[in-house]
Amino acid sequence: MDTRLAEIVEPYEGSPQELIPILQSVQEEYGYLPEQQMMEIARFTGVSESKVYGVASFYAQFRFTPVGENRIMVCRGTACYVRGSQQVLDEVSRMLGIGEGETTPDKKYSLETVACIGCCALAPVIAINDKVGAKMTSKKVKDVVAGGGNHEV
Question: Higher model confidence: residue 65 or residue 34?
Fold first, then answer.
């Protein structure tokens, strides 16, 4: 077990009941669940590797790939969807060359969808990191992405 992981699991006893909190702690530290760390967690908790993966893949909060420097979230809530969020998602995907749940090879962007961002009156909405973009269009998406994530959303 590497030093970083050992420090993360140190407060835990290693019981199977601690699996989810341990996974949460590891993801908080690494930004995702690396395969090697998941194998070590299995050994530490006495849970099979397949069960660790099964638990982690069941919950949407866990990810198995690193998150990009700029996390782009496209809202798929009802208001956003009926006002064109699918076209916004398609445009972002086309521009970045990645699909939903993927990260660009340079680790600059990750693309995901969320059930609701909570800005229904401003639909369709995207969020880039902690900035929310309202009434998004394909042109606005192009401007934001072309700005390298630094463009005001």
Answer: 34
Cis peptide before 124, with omega less than 30 degrees from 0?
yes
Q: CA of 86: how far to CAs of 9, 10, 136, in Å?
A: 41, 44, 11
CB atoms within 10 A of CB 110: 24
Burial class (CB in 10 A: 0-12, 13-18, 19+), 6: exposed
99 near 66, Cβ under 8 Å?
no
pLDDT > 70: percent of the chain: 95
Domains by residue range for the chain, with CATH: 3-58 (1.10.10.1590), 70-146 (3.40.30.10)
